[in-house]
Amino acid sequence: MTSRIVAVLNQKGGVGKTTTTVNLAHALARMGRKVTVIDFDPQCHLAVALGVVSKQQSGIDEVMLGNADFAGQQIPVRDNLNLIVAGPRLQEIEQLSDSASRRGDLLRKALAQGTGDRDLVLIDCPPSSGILVANALFAAEELLVPMTSDYLALQGLSHLMGTIKKFEAALNKKYRLLIVMSRFIPTRRLSRDVLHTVKKYFPAQILATPIRETASLAECPSFGKTVFEYRPGWRSARDFEALADDFLTGRVM
Ligand SMILES: Nc1ncnc2c1ncn2[C@@H]1O[C@H](COP(=O)(O)OP(=O)(O)OP(=O)(O)O)[C@@H](O)[C@H]1O
Ligand SMILES: [Mg+2]
Questions:
Q1: Which helix (H) or strand (E) holds 4?
Q2: What is the CATH number of the domain that holds 29?
Q3: Residue to mutate, 19, 43, 152, 225, ligand 1, most ligand atoms under 8 Å from C-beta
Q4: Which ligand 1 atom is nearest residue 20's CA?
Q5: Does residue 131 fall inside a structural domain?
Q6: Model confidence pLDDT, tens digit, residues 155-193
Q7: Cα of 221 to ligand 2 centre, how many Å?
Q8: Would residue 96 count as lying in a domain?
């Protein structure tokens, strides 16, 4: 069986990559999909958001360095949902400049060895465009780009699309690319204007449900809970349920 490998990326910080990864993954797991999330950010925010705090435990770092395999590094964190933590050496992989660690295909090679019974693997990328993001772009066939609706995010998006096009040309592949409108404030005119512009440039590539800005989503990580645990049935839980459905059925704006 082959897993869908999805990189959640945007080089801009704070746009909702980790929030999207955690809550979309949990929504999909609750729908019966077998999902593994990879914390691909040395800040370890994904693990924290899922309530896993040990920074010493090895994770995707040792998988990339060839010392551990994907299957063995998974930690079951919820029903149907496994986590692979970043691991203390992920930072080194980002920083070291010897030729082996500069290679962009460590993650792709590691995942090519097999991802077991997983339907989906979601990679929560760091806010950069360095070697880790290059590894995610080598490994993934699908890209999920969370995007906030402000002017600078729009600028950032065009930069990101340029990077993605370069990878497509160099790797001779074409990604399935979907945008998630995150931290959306429906009552704000700028939000609607930015959405209008994104729609114009990326027709049929924005998932149908925007994730609204809410206090509960901002509070979740401090409790190590997903929105389905922290505020079941509330607005943001419903947003993520709808988003998961959009993602599975390909429903776009
Ligand atoms: N829809 C939302 N409503 C309210 N707060 C949100 C929402 N989405 C994200 N946040 C909050 O905004 C901050 C940044 O979100 P998040 O960590 O998901 O972004 P990120 O893109 O992963 O950031 P980084 O680039 O640092 O990895 C966090 O404090 C998070 O709790
Ligand atoms: Mg993050």
A1: strand 4-8
A2: 3.40.50.300
A3: 19
A4: 18
A5: yes
A6: 899 999 999 999 999 999 999 999 999 999 999 999 999
A7: 11
A8: yes
Q: Is the pLDDT of residue 100 over 60?
A: no
Give helix then strand counts, H and E, for the chain: 13, 7
Nearest CA to ligand 1 atom 31: 218
Cα 213 to ligand 1 centre (Å): 10
**How many domains does the chain divide into?**
1
Going by C-alpha positions, the residue among 79, 84, 96 that lies closest to residue 131 is 96
Distance 19 CA to ligand 1 centre (A): 6
- For residue 135, the tally of other CB atoms under 10 A from its CB is 27
Q: Is the pLDDT of residue 233 over 70?
A: yes
pLDDT of 48 reads 97
Structural domain range at position 82: 4-173
* Secondary element (H or E) of residue 110: helix 106-112
Instruction: Say whether 166 sits in a helix, a strand or coil.
Output: helix
Residues having CB closer than 6 A to ligand 1 are 13-19, 41, 45, 127, 182-183, 211, 213-214, 217-218, 221
